[in-house]
Design brief:
Distance between the termini: 20 Å
Structural class: alpha+beta
Shape: globular
Radius of gyration: 22 Å
Largest sheet: 8 strands, antiparallel
Strand content: 15-25%
Strand order of the largest sheet: 15-12-14-13-17-18-16-19
Amino acid sequence: MKEVKNKLVEIVGEDHVSDADFELYAYSRDLSPASPQLASIIVRPHSTEEVQEIIKLANKHKIPVYVRGCGCSHWAAWLPVKGGILLDMTRMDKILEINEKNLVAVFEAGCTWFKLMEELRKRKLTYLSSEMGGPAMTIGGSVIKAGGGPYGTCKFGFHGQADVLGLEIVLPTGDVIKTGSWAMLNCAPFRREGLGPDLTGLFIGSEGIFGIATKVALRIRPLPEHEDFLHFEFNNWEDVVKVGDAATHEVGDEVAYSLDCVEEASKMGNISVRIHVFGYNRHTIYYRKRLLSEVCLKNKGKKRDPNIAKNTFSKVVTGLPEIFAAGVWHFAGCGTVPLHELPKYVKIWREIVQKYGFYRNTFGAWAFPRGWTIYVHMTYLEPNERKKIVSISNEINRRFFENDIVPYGIGGPEGLQPYVKGKLGAYYDLIKKLKQFLDSNNILQPGILVSYDA
């Protein structure tokens, strides 16, 4: 590793390479309760060319490389389970272009959602979706795991379903490619599809095992001029599903922009539904708000303070400074389910809450077109509660996966791999074969998403 460290210093500079214990430990955890995993060395590249050189060096010495944005994953998606080099991508955070005519933004993958959104707002533009990890999350990390969040996803779906126009990727060999229209010589990133298959889609959701995203091109939009908020409380998730059905029934013209629902274990049977509506004229807002209000009231919803909804959605894009004030969060059972299947997962969650008697526990769901992303989050105040939380989490994951939830992300061996293995058959085998073809030395994110020996 001494030879490798010296070469890394040549590539990125001495200030951006470290094998000091205190730094290795600082990079050893994400937001999951997975046990700490230590890299051998931390490297902070500043350009695509530096990433290329690092990957070539890793191939030469057959050293694993793991890729970290801001470390916000909650299923062990980048933890260096086999040691080696950990790339911290946060120096690669430049916004390269905001094309107001073609409505395209191009930036380095280490740029955060907060930085991009602040720059877009100055120009009365926006990107109409969010990430569960909050505005501090890097956009490259969000796209590579096909993430999403409560803000905007009811209408526009997850990152990659509509608005990712192209990626610049460093392959595990060190070669660089661009996808979509961007792949054509001197062609701008204006459409997702290029010649042949959709290679952009190959990398979205890959969790970094096929290549390292260094640049991203996104579709952006004019900032809508009007918005409004609704907040209702329900006693029955069957009624909430009817609201979600009405909100997403006109596929492609969903009437709600954001639809977020939560039930706290300490207030079981009290479901808070928060809705965000906006558009480009007041008539549209008035119509959508009236329609959604009628649907909520028809399905036994009780009208509550809309400022609570406004506060919820504004925090998602402006910052979450108090998120850990009530204790450390841990997520479990994160994934997507068909629209009308939601209540059975609530029933499972309630049974597990009653079994363990752990009430610092919330079931959440936010809508996307014709489906829900669901999650359970628990907070714990003392380190000795961790063992109990992990036991609860394991049972939630096991039982949700028995009911065919589609995971939000798979991650490493302490992520969701144990619950997915053996369930994907030929699909999993194909992913493994693609990984073996693209990364014959198995250096990039080994042990993440798929597990095999090179």
